[in-house]
Design goal:
Blueprint lengths: L33 E4 H9 L1 H8 L12 H20 L4 H5 L4 E3 L5 H4 L7 E5 L4 E5 L3 E5 L4 E10 L7 H6 L4 H16 L7 E9 L12 E9 L5 H13 L11 H11 L1
Parallel strand pairs: 1-4, 6-7
Antiparallel strand pairs: 2-5, 3-4, 5-6, 7-8
Helix pairs in contact: 1-2
C-alpha cells in the first residue's frame, strides 16, 4: 500500500519522512521524562532497530488508515457497558459466563479509555520513562475486589471462536503482550488487579445470504492469564537502547528492516 500525505484540508503535502515534534524524539542523556506508549513498547520488543530509528532518529513511518469498523464496535461496546456502569449492575454477558463482575466505576474511566487524553500511565523512576496506553475497559470482580482488564476485539471468521486456538494464534501474541502491559501499568498506579484478563471477541457472521444493511456478531469471552514478570527488565533494556550511540543491528525477521535495506540498495 502506498500512503500519500495530505493536510487537514485534504490537500497534498510534502512527505519528509521525519518527525517534527520534539517531544516524540528522545535525546540520549536527556534529563526530562520521556513518554513511551504501549504500542511503541511493543515495537521495541518486535524490532529494536525500527524502534530506535523512530524514537531516537525521528524516522516517521508511513501513515495508515484507521480501522473504522473496529473502532465503531469498540465505541458501541463502551456505550453499552457504560449503561450498566451508571446503574452499578452487571452486563448480561457476565451472567452468561458465571462471572460476579460489574463494570468498574472511576472518575477517570473515560481518560483511561482514550490514549490521546492520557490513558493509564505511570512514571518508572529507574529509567525516567513514562509508560502509558489506553484500555478498552476495566471491570470489577466482586468476589476478589480486584480490577479486571478487558479488551474488545472485532473480527470476521467462518470458524467458531475457541480459547485455545485464539490464544495460540501467531497473530494474537501481541494481544497477550498488550494485556500484560495494561495489568502492569494499573498495578503501578496502585490498584489491585487480577491476573485474569478477558478478550471480548466479536465475530462477524459471514454465513448470511444477504447483507440487509446490518451485520450480526457472535460474542465470546476469552480469559487470559497475564504475565507481567518480563516487563521491568524490558523497560530497562529499552532505556539502554534509547541511550545507545549505535543504531541496533537489523532484525533479520523484520519486514520493515528488509524494505528499508532493499530500498536503499535499489
Amino acid at each position: 500500500m502506498v500512503s500519500i500525505k495530505k493536510n487537514n484540508k485534504g490537500e497534498l503535502a510534502e512527505a519528509k519522512g521525519l518527525r517534527t515534534r520534539k517531544t516524540s524524539i528522545y535525546l540520549p542523556g536527556q534529563n526530562e521524562k520521556f513518554k513511551i506508549s504501549r504500542s511503541k513498547f511493543s515495537n521495541f520488543i518486535d524490532c529494536k532497530r525500527c524502534f530506535y530509528l523512530d524514537r531516537v532518529k525521528g524516522l516517521q513511518e508511513p501513515s495508515m488508515p484507521g480501522w473504522s469498523l473496529n473502532t465503531t464496535v469498540d465505541d458501541l461496546l463502551k456505550k453499552e457497558f457504560d449503561f450498566y456502569r451508571e446503574r452499578n449492575k452487571p452486563h448480561p454477558i457476565f451472567k452468561n459466563y458465571n462471572l460476579n463482575f460489574i463494570p468498574y466505576q472511576h472518575e477517570d474511566i473515560d481518560k483511561w479509555r482514550d490514549s490521546l487524553k492520557g490513558g493509564i500511565s505511570y512514571h518508572d523512576e529507574e529509567t525516567n520513562l513514562i509508560l502509558q496506553g489506553g484500555v478498552d475497559d476495566v471491570w470489577f470482580d466482586l468476589d476478589t475486589n480486584k480490577l479486571v482488564v478487558a479488551d474488545y476485539k472485532a473480527q470476521s471468521s467462518k470458524y467458531d471462536v475457541e480459547r485455545e486456538s485464539y490464544l495460540a494464534s501467531r497473530y494474537h501474541q501481541g494481544y497477550k503482550m498488550q494485556m500484560d502491559i495494561y495489568v502492569h501499568i494499573l498495578r503501578k498506579m496502585g490498584f489491585e488487579v487480577s491476573n485474569t484478563t478477558y478478550f471480548m471477541v466479536c465475530n462477524g457472521i459471514k454465513t448470511k445470504n444477504s447483507f440487509d444493511a446490518k451485520m450480526n456478531f457472535t460474542i465470546t469471552l476469552i480469559d487470559y492469564e497475564s504475565n507481567t514478570s518480563w516487563i521491568e527488565d524490558k523497560i530497562i533494556e529499552m532505556k539502554g537502547t534509547l541511550e545507545s550511540k549505535e543504531t541496533p543491528s537489523r532484525n533479520p525477521y523484520c519486514e520493515n528492516c528488509a524494505y528499508l535495506e532493499q530500498g536503499a540498495k535499489l
